[in-house]
Design goal:
Elements: E1 2-3, E2 11-16, E3 22-28, H1 35-42, E4 51-56, H2 59-67, E5 72-73, H3 75-85, H4 87-109, H5 116-139, H6 150-176, H7 181-204, H8 212-237, H9 240-264, H10 271-313, H11 323-331, E6 339-346, H12 349-356, H13 358-376, E7 382-384, E8 389-395, H14 399-419, E9 426-432, H15 440-462
Antiparallel strand pairs: 1-5, 2-3, 2-4, 6-8, 6-9, 7-8
Helix pairs in contact: 4-5, 5-6, 5-10, 6-7, 6-8, 7-8, 8-9, 9-10, 12-13, 13-14
GO molecular function, one term: diguanylate cyclase activity
Protein name: GGDEF domain-containing protein
GO cellular component, one term: plasma membrane
């Protein structure tokens, strides 16, 4: 493709189509003005991807003209021309791909909390976004700048346009939970047309353009079916989500019907693509908001569930795990053979309650919990299993480490004892499985007995009275 400046030769510019036929559509006459400006003005719709043929009366003169410095190769200019015309398609395609990738990453990273329904809805939304982006790109003239396989581009455009209706209907079906024939019938019809187009491509290597009219009819039928389904669902439960889908689908339907009207009116511009793209963009934006709202609901429900779990397994006063969590850990006993139980009891809790009040007793328990958490490091192994009783479950611990942790606990209690007006003292006993064949209850009873022995020693040392 050439831009001509300053040549004195008269020539014609022809267009050779894929079938070899040539159509003369521009004749250059140097007396008629600058060829460069008139050349672009004369380019017809669909010129991209075709072969432009230059003719003149004297081939030698044309050859000299083409090699002259006054002749500028305009492949770049024509590429820029078509790129500007198709910039909307590129932006739309990249936006769809980016949103689809973000949704995909979100679904993969959070699949453990997604319900099957939300997962399916998200997958359909990803498919719809990619399908819409590919259709807008292949329907534009942009790909003609990078490939001359026009038939393949048209085939992909036809297939992706055909798939828009099934994806949209599937999203509506899984949202309103309607498996009726009114949704399924146009869905299946569109898929049959896609299969027919694919079969034609495989057999003859040509897109089945005669399917365009049936595809458009299927699209119109899908619009009617979707509107009826959404209206029935909204009248039944007045769901805000269904109302939003109805509004979104209204944008898509308006853009689609306007695009079809423009397409069949004989207008040679690309207004039909812009209309459909605008409706599709509004539809995808609103559907994206609906999907994100669903995802946010799932996250909120999961957070609420975790909160309920905390209420079920965490002691509200001390922040340590409670007896329910302790029983759950004990239920996993067969999984390991190296358990160690450390059982603790806070000394003189009753006397503290009687002398200083129950608030002081609660503070004593909280002080004890902080000391236990710090001494045994991992708070997830620490439990409050009764009023003044605590326990720690350790795995793969050697006796020296356990003794060091117990000694650290006593030192921490002594530090708190020096600061508080009421005594902070904890009796401790432990038992290690160390490969012995015994049940969890037997090991716990052994640790509990050791704790009571230590408690008796402490009371004997202080005379059993509070300071």
């Amino acid at each position: 493709m050439l831009s001509i400046r300053g040549t004195k030769q008269k020539f014609s510019l022809g267009l050779r189509a894929a079938d070899g036929k040539e159509t003369g559509f521009y004749t250059y006459d140097p007396d008629s003005g600058p060829a460069e400006m008139r050349l672009f003005a004369a380019l017809p719709e669909g010129a991209a991807g075709k072969t432009l043929v230059l003719r003149c009366a004297e081939p030698e003169a044309l050859s000299a003209m083409l090699s002259s410095e006054s002749v500028l190769a305009t492949q770049t200019k024509l590429s820029s021309y078509y790129f500007r015309r198709s910039l909307y398609a590129l932006v739309f395609f990249l936006l769809c791909v980016l949103c689809a990738v973000e949704l995909g990453v979100l679904m993969v990273t959070m699949r453990s909390i997604f319900t099957p329904e939300v997962q399916h809805q998200t997958r359909v939304m990803i498919g719809l976004m990619l399908d819409a982006g590919i259709w807008v790109l292949t329907d534009s003239e942009l790909l003609a700048l990078v490939t001359d396989r026009a038939n393949l581009v048209v085939f992909v455009s036809l297939v992706t346009f055909s798939l828009t209706a099934p994806f949209t209907l599937e999203f509506i079906r899984c949202t309103v939970k309607n498996d009726g024939w009114l949704i399924r019938l146009p869905q299946m019809a569109a898929l049959v047309l896609v299969a027919a187009d694919a079969a034609g491509w495989l057999l003859v290597g040509q897109p089945m353009l005669w399917l365009l009219m049936p595809i458009h009819i299927t699209v119109i039928a899908s619009i009617l079916a979707a509107f009826h389904t959404l209206m029935v669902s909204y009248k039944k439960n007045h769901s805000g989500e269904v109302r939003n889908i109805l509004l979104a689908f209204g944008l898509l339907a308006a853009g689609t019907l306007l695009a079809l009207a423009t397409f069949y009116s004989g207008y040679r511009g690309r207004i039909y693509a812009v209309c459909y793209c605008a409706g599709l963009l509004g539809f995808l934006v609103m559907l994206g908001r609906i999907v994100l709202h669903r995802i946010r609901q799932v996250i909120d429900e999961q957070a609420q569930l975790e909160n309920y779990k905390n209420l079920a397994y965490v002691d509200s006063l001390t922040g340590l795990f409670n007896y329910t969590a302790f029983k759950y850990m004990k239920s996993r006993w067969p999984e390991r053979t190296d358990w160690t139980y450390i059982v603790m009891d806070v000394n003189w809790l009753k006397q503290t309650n009687d002398q200083y009040g129950h608030r002081a007793g609660d503070e004593l328990l909280c002080c004890a919990a902080r000391c236990i958490r710090e001494a045994f490091y991992r708070a997830e192994d620490c439990f409050r299993i009764g009023g003044d009783e605590f326990a720690v479950i350790a795995t793969a611990a050697d006796e020296d480490a356990v003794k060091a942790a117990v000694e650290k606990l006593r030192n921490l209690c002594a530090e708190w004892d020096a600061k508080e007006e009421y005594p902070v003292s904890i009796a401790v006993g432990y038992a290690m499985q160390a490969g012995r064949t015994m049940t969890a209850d037997e090991l716990f009873m052994e640790a509990d007995a050791a704790m009571y022995q230590n408690k008796a020693e402490i009371k004997k040392a202080v005379g059993g009275i509070i300071r």
